[in-house]
Input
Amino acid sequence: MRFRSWLCAPALKRNLMGKALEVAADIALFDLEDSVPSEAKCAARAALLAHFRERPPVATAVRINSLATYEGLKDLLFLLDHAICPDVLMLPKALLPAECGLAASLLKERGCTAVKVFAIIETVASVWSLRALGGKPSGLDGLIFGAADFAADLGVAPTAADLRFVRQEIVLAARKFGVVAIDSPCFHLQDEVRLAREARNAHRLGFSGKIAIYPTQVATINELFTHSPQMLERARQLVDASEHNPGSTIVRVGDEMIGPPFVKYARHILSS
Output
């Protein structure tokens, strides 16, 4: 399963899976939270059930409301009661490890053992709960950064805040726990330059993918989170050079001297 691009839309929206398939998004993300008004929550759940009546043609994710709210509990129980088992369950404003453990335990009890649980880190409290963890929480499979909510929680403009510090913290925690890290959406729908810059910076920090809130964003995200043929060829050269010189940890390749860290990263590229 690939995690580069997540095309997000309200669960009320028709044919999200078809659109995700059309633009080659890795995951179709159905939202029950912010994009669904309070009075439409029940209708959104019913629409979600209709989406899952047949086998989805693409990988799916569902973002429920916060488990600290009544609507979030209703969302999770609705999924369990109707045997809706998306590939990924997203927990907004997550407080770790309790909420992740609760969701994973209930999913397992109802037979949805293949569902991956991703915690969305989008409040100051979420970051502090992440910092307090001594080890990987039970059931956690990934972390997602929610930039807009986090900025609002800090009291700064969502589209102008410098949030590199928390992005780096999320990636470091993901690496520590051996899980996936996904970046927040780009909210400027027609600004391809900004989208590319955000995706490139996220990839450089160590994120594995990015949320898309508009179909045309998917192609850029896929491109920038996919290793180019040149990178793959270079990685093969480094690995080959290392394997052909087993008695040396430092090898010259072209005009570069490479050591174990370079080879380790090259193997990572070839395996991802």
Notes: DSSP finds eleven helices and ten strands in the chain. The first strand starts at residue 5 and ends at 10.
